[in-house]
């Protein structure tokens, strides 16, 4: 199955495979081969030997291919161009848990760049309660970081993390997925990023045993996800969805006041 993400609102092709997308993009002038330079915040063009930062190229088209049975078949093909160097080409990246972290960070940085130019928007009434829930999730990130810095046993940190996820965060995710995300076009790039972040976080939270690396990933990814929703996704919602519709979802958040679990307040 293919999901088409597009940034510049041009007419997109309906490619069935990644190979077909590469051939089609090559015929449209995307002839250069790009790859991520390991441990560097840039991409490398093999045809011209140029190293490009996120400010020196744009993503013109994105094609995501989902494997029907094997997650390893999930792939994203990016069509990239640079006005500065007058070059166009393609970049591969796996999707979801198999994604190259260097490629993902660079692409997400690029994706945010035009969005950050949007003027701040006062939070709509229908999203205020969800924003308040974000505050408690950010505190979870802080608590995990505190616990790790203090050398607290991983089992204690994981126990609180599991409690928070099962009692609060999972319902928050479900509320967004059932009532908020459907308000945007399914091919909206910001929406697709939010869905991917939810998927990665659920996988991490639902591990039976969490390593130190798992807890660090939860802390970092959850923080990034909340800031993305607050700074980008919710503003997109308010610019594309009527206030009447947003008001209609104001009661989807937790109805009960947040009561913390301080039976083992390891972060103090």
Keywords:
single chain, 268 residues, alpha+beta, 2 domains, seven-stranded mixed β-sheet, 7 helices, 7 strands, disordered N terminus
Brief description of this entry?
With 268 residues, the protein is of the alpha+beta class.
Describe this structure in words.
48% of the residues lie in helices and 15% in strands. With 268 residues, the protein is α+β, with helices and mostly antiparallel strands. It has two domains: 2-101, no CATH class; 125-247. Helix 3 runs antiparallel to helix 4 and helix 4 (154-180) runs antiparallel to helix 5 (189-205). The longest helix has 29 residues, at 212-240. Mean pLDDT is 80; it is low at 1-11 and 112-118.
Task: Please give the domain count.
Answer: 2
Poorly predicted residue ranges: 1-11, 112-118
Q: Span between N and C termini?
A: 48 Å
Q: What structural category arises from helix and sheet content? A: alpha+beta
Give average pLDDT, whole number.
Answer: 80
What's the main sheet like? 7 strands, mixed
What's the gyration radius in Å? 20 Å
Strand order in the largest sheet: 1-5-6-7-2-3-4
Number of helices: 7
- Number-wise, the strands total 7
Task: Work out the oligomeric state of the chains in this entry.
Answer: single chain
The helix-strand sequence is: EHEEEEEEHHHHHH
Beta-strand residue percentage? 5-15%
Helix content percent band = 40-55%
Overall geometry: globular
